[in-house]
Known about the structure:
Blueprint: E1 8-14, H1 18-29, E2 35-42, E3 58-63, H2 69-77, E4 84-88, E5 92-93, H3 98-108, E6 112-120, H4 137-144, E7 156-157, E8 160-163, E9 170-174, H5 175-180, H6 193-203, E10 207-218, H7 228-246, H8 253-279
Parallel strand pairs: 1-2, 1-4, 2-3, 6-10
Antiparallel strand pairs: 4-9, 5-10, 7-8, 8-10
Helix pairs in contact: 7-8
Amino acid sequence: xxxxxxxxxxxxxxxDSGAFLHACVADLLAQQARIRVVVVDNGSRDGAPDxxxxxxxxxxxxxxxxxxxxxxxxxxxxxxxxxxxxxxxxDCRLEPDAVPRLLAHLAAAPQLGILxxxxxxxxxxxxxxxxxxxxxxxxxxxxxxxxxxxxxxxxEMGSLIEVEATSGALMLMPRDxxxxxxxxxxxxVLHCEDLDLCRRVLLAGRRIxxxxxVRIVHAKGTSSRRRPVWVEWQKHRGMWRYFRRFDAAGxxxxxxxxxxxxxVAHFPLAAAGAWWRAFRP
Length: 281
């Protein structure tokens, strides 16, 4: 079977993602676009990658362990074909015309470096992570003190809304830009690597937007529920790495110390809450 040249490569990172992975890959292969799908499996033990269909547009890369989301995304991107990269979490469901519509939006707005979608929960409620502001020490301190932190103004561009950052659950971007930026920072294992990439896209002079007319159901966190404490540790570790990379040099010593103490103090509370939510009777 001759496969037409792909215009977009979708990278899906899996880790014990089960039936979610099967559904996501089926959705991607059903897209009304010339697509290639690369699944990078991070040491799954559930056998889900073995049950994926035999399709010439699908490639499976297998890691013996879990090197992290950023590393796996970079591995998948290195196998990409076409001018665009689409990073998709395995717990996302896509309508057959989702990718063509995202590609059309990106083509019409060449200033964009990343395009996200309207992420919703299974009940249809929106997920705030799709429209985010750039993290900063000031915002973090205000939130810790229980103060409401206003979102940055979000400029509407037709069916697109310009934002400072969007969720790594679904990101479309030009492949040449991803490569020019060096891909995801592999120093992150889980969480904050998407915020890091968004920050570098903005620093490169490109913009970020969310397509409000492309609705994606995102089950959220299906692969990480078995290890909630480890996930929280990686999240807090990622926060500290992000701060050191972008904001520490311009901050006074006392603020650097305050951020570090705050992250360390917050971790046990967050870990206990995550464990309770995952394993409560």
